[in-house]
Amino acid sequence: MVATVLRVKRCLLRLRKTRPKSLKVLRFKKIWISNLIRVHLLAFDKNRIDTREFKGNNREDLLRSLARENTQLLINELWKLPTERVKDVIVAKLPEPTTPLPREKPLPKQKPPTKWEQFAKLKGIQKKKKTNLVWDEVHKEWKRRWGYKRAKDDTKEWLIEVPENADPKEDQFAKRNVAKKERVAKNEFNRLKNIARAQKIKVPGMGLAPTSSQSKSELAQAASVAKISNASVGKFQQNLPKEKTPRNTGIRRKFQPVIGDFGGERQKQLDLLKLMGSKKPRLDITKAVNKQMREEDMDSSDKKKKGAGKKGRKGNMSGKGKGNFKGRAGGKGKVPKGKGRKPPMKQGKR
Amino acid sequence: MRPLTDEETKTMFEKLSKYIGENIKILVDRPDGTYCFRLHNDRVYYMSDKMLKLATNFARNQLVSVGSCFGKFTKTLKFRLHITALDFLAPYAKFKVWVKPGAEQSFLYGNHVLKSGLGRITENTAQYQGVVVYSMADVPLGFGVAAKTTQECRKVDPLSIVVFHQADIDKYLYDKQHL
């Protein structure tokens, strides 16, 4: 939107005349009349109103004068537009209304620099503009610097001198063609690598890259690529002995939908629980041992309790024993057998 | 958010069964509605289907938590219970340990339960059995693993560890960022 700022000194001077002399402030009048505003015959005065004056008695006068001045400016602006006379009336032609719309899509992101661009920036190498056409001495005409029908085209030579240290039987033409093809291929590969780097994805797999020393994982990767590089995508390829399937291959895990079959899910979990329950060994040895230990403990504690009671009774018994001559066996019969046997043994030992 | 795979479900149930045994059935098959486990950010959440449907309105990266968190899967794909699961473990716990009032605080500060602090223990507790720790007033405080069987507990000296501490409700205060 083109905005025009108008500085009108003439109005200012008039304004100063009307003002009290104490206020000798030089004030530039600025009103904003944009294209949009011109269409709708609208103007904004963005100057701050002098509050002291505004609060004073002649507020109405101030407002009136401001309104008048600004209207004048607007009309001045109107006069700058092309006018025409229609039936004795001067008519200004307003500009066509336009509606600026915001951009739909965000601004395109800047492309990340290629490897060469990074290197050139590091080294401070700048692009030099070269002419497209160069003079070819042989053909005596202007030819392209490179590409089809280029000047000094080394693939179109009819004779190549065999270098001194080269194999005399080597085909120099074929050698050049191969070298050219390799350069093209390398350039293409670099281009793809640049794209891959820009999109932050892995560099396209190229099997075994010619490096001086390959690691185990690189070799494994190359082997796996080679394996699927046939017409049937490796479907009928047999595994080598001891060959491990490379990682990150095979079927991707697919998860159940978040809101799916709740009943089926529950049933699956219940089945799993049933399976887990059935897998438990029926005889938990540690548990059994613990139980046994507990029972033994209980027994021994019982014994201790009863034993303690018996000691007391023992005295009685011995008393009874003394009085055994009377031949009373009924009292003894109440005592449990196993325990009843012990005291006589002890007695016997004594 | 996604349902657990079979393997994940198994890992989680195996861990849960250490504490509540076959009572997991009660969590899975509830009479009061459909409840399910969902995995989100490696954490397992337990929620009703209604809540799940509401939660799907939020993008994955904006959803912090939904329902109650049972625990999380570690990077080595083991399942670790969180203290937030205590509400579901405590009512169905098979093996319990009651801690004396004096030892409560020590347990809540992350220490193991010593024999001296042991109030009661369920009979026939095996060694390394998952147990829920209660205060003497039957308030669930956390859970852990029995270091000794009930039988051994009777004989050991008062300063030996009886229950290994795993999680306690103090985590709500001091370990909030990891919940």
Automatic annotation (TrEMBL), chain A:
Q: Does the keyword Membrane apply?
A: no
- Region described as Disordered: spans on this chain: 279-350
Ranges annotated as spanning the membrane = none
Q: What Pfam families does this protein's entry cite?
A: RRS1
Keywords in UniProt for this one? Nucleus, Ribosome biogenesis
GO BP of this protein:
endonucleolytic cleavage in ITS1 to separate SSU-rRNA from 5.8S rRNA and LSU-rRNA from tricistronic rRNA transcript (SSU-rRNA, 5.8S rRNA, LSU-rRNA); ribosomal large subunit biogenesis
Show the ranges annotated as biased composition (Basic residues): 303-314, 323-350
So what does this one do? Involved in ribosomal large subunit assembly.
Q: Which family does it belong to?
A: Belongs to the RRS1 family.
Can you say what this protein is called?
A: Ribosome biogenesis regulatory protein
UniProtKB/TrEMBL annotation, chain B:
Q: According to its UniProt record, where is this protein located?
A: Nucleus, Nucleolus
Q: Which GO terms describe its biological process?
A: ribosome assembly
List the SMART domains: PUA
Entry-linked InterPro entries: NIP7_N (IPR040598), Nip7_N_euk (IPR055359), PUA (IPR002478), PUA-like_sf (IPR015947), PUA_sf (IPR036974), Ribosomal_synth_fac_NIP7 (IPR016686), UPF0113_PUA (IPR005155)
The record places domain PUA at 95-170
UniProt main location, coarse = nucleus
UniProt keyword terms in alphabetical order = Nucleus, Ribosome biogenesis, RNA-binding
Q: Which SUPFAM superfamilies match?
A: Pre-PUA domain (SSF88802), PUA domain-like (SSF88697)
Q: Which GO terms describe its molecular function?
A: RNA binding
List the Pfam families hit by this protein, alphabetically: pre-PUA_NIP7 (PF17833), UPF0113 (PF03657)
Where is it found, in Gene Ontology cellular component terms? nucleolus
Show the PROSITE patterns listed in the entry: PUA (PS50890)
Q: How does it assemble?
A: Monomer. Interacts with pre-ribosome complex. May bind to RNA. Interacts with NOL8. Interacts with FTSJ3.
Q: What does this protein do?
A: Required for proper 34S pre-rRNA processing and 60S ribosome subunit assembly.
**Family under the similarity heading:** Belongs to the NIP7 family.
The protein in question is named 60S ribosome subunit biogenesis protein NIP7 homolog
What is the species listed in this Swiss-Prot or TrEMBL entry?
A: Triplophysa tibetana
